[in-house]
Write a structure and sequence with these properties.
single chain, four-stranded antiparallel β-sheet
Length: 117
């Protein structure tokens, strides 16, 4: 079991930058991967970025070159740096922890990111 707490969301103008953070209640190095997902109103939750236990990363095509995911195992933190934000980046951003079993998946409560045009 792990608790994930996101922070750092807010309102930003298009073209601006924002970072969101995820604090885990225990070691994140034990997870296969940590990720950020987002859900816009009326849409399904989608993967934004993911980082594995060996620091391999992958990104949604829509955010490649603009977003960067990183982790600090010593602090049990995962970060998402978002640059050149667009209105379509608006949504609730969720932190995700993926265990080594498909049954072991955890979610944070989410943090709202709103990009105004």
């Amino acid at each position: 079991q792990v608790q994930l707490v996101e922070s750092g969301g807010g309102l930003v103008q298009a073209g601006g930058s924002l970072s969101v953070s995820c604090a885990a209640s225990r070691s994140i190095s034990s997870f296969r991967a940590m990720g950020w997902y987002r859900q816009a109103p009326g849409k399904q939750r989608e993967l934004v970025a993911r980082i594995t236990n060996i620091d391999s990363t992958n990104y949604a095509d829509s955010v490649k070159g603009r977003f960067t995911i990183s982790r600090d195992n010593a602090k049990n933190m995962v970060y998402l740096r978002m640059n050149s934000l667009k209105p379509e980046d608006t949504g609730v951003y969720y932190c995700n922890a993926n265990g080594w079993s498909p049954l072991l998946e955890y979610w944070g409560q989410g943090t709202q990111v709103t990009v105004s045009s």
